[in-house]
Amino acid sequence: MSDQVHRYLRERIIDGELTEGKRLVEVDIASELGVSRTPVREALWQLRSMNLIRQVGTGYEVTNVKRELLEILDVRAALESYAVRRAADVITKEQLASIAEICDAMEKLSFTATEKRAKCNRRFHEELIRSAGNDRLLRLVSDYQDYFTVVQPLFDEKFIIRTQREHRAILAALQKRDGEAAAACVTQHVLGAAKFIESDSARTASGR
Predict the structure, then answer these.
(1) Does 166 share its domain with 177?
(2) Are residue 74 and residue 39 in the same domain, yes or no?
(3) pLDDT tens digits, residue range 182-202?
C-alpha cells in the first residue's frame, strides 16, 4: 500500500499538480486516499529521501524539483566525466560488451516504456562508473541516480533518441581508450539534460 501512495504522490509532484511549497499533511492524505496513516508515513519518508519533499514542523512540503535536478546534474557531470577518464585505461572487454548490451536493450524499448528505460539508463551510467574501479564513486552516483530515475517522464521522445546517440558516442570513445573524448561526451550528455530541464520542453513533455 505504501508503494501505491508513494507512486500517487510522486506522479503528482513530477506532473506539477503539487507545486513547490505545497503542504503535505499525513492525516489529510490518509483521509483523501482512504488508507491508514502508516502507508502514508512510509510514502512520505520515501519522497523525503528522494528530496522531492522536505519536512517542515510536523508536516512536509514539496521542494523545487527542477532546482534539485539541475544541481544533481551539475554534480553528475563532474563525477561521471572523471570516472570515464579513468575508465578508459582500465575498462575490460567484458565491461565494454555489457555497456553495449545495455545500449541495445534501451534502443529496443518503446517511448512509453518509461520504467524499463529508467532502469536501463541507470544500469548504463552505473556500469560506466563501475568500470573506473572506484566503489566510493559508484555509491555517490547511485544516490543521485535514485532522484534522476523518478523524473524520466519529463523527457520527450526527441530527447530520448538524442540520449541514445550520446550513449553510443560515450561507448565508442571508451572502445578507443580515449578518456578525454569519453569525458567530453559525458559532459555534453549530462549537461544537455540540464539544458532540456531548463527549457520549456520538459514542461511540454510532462503534459503541463
Answers:
(1) yes
(2) no
(3) 999 999 999 998 898 888 545
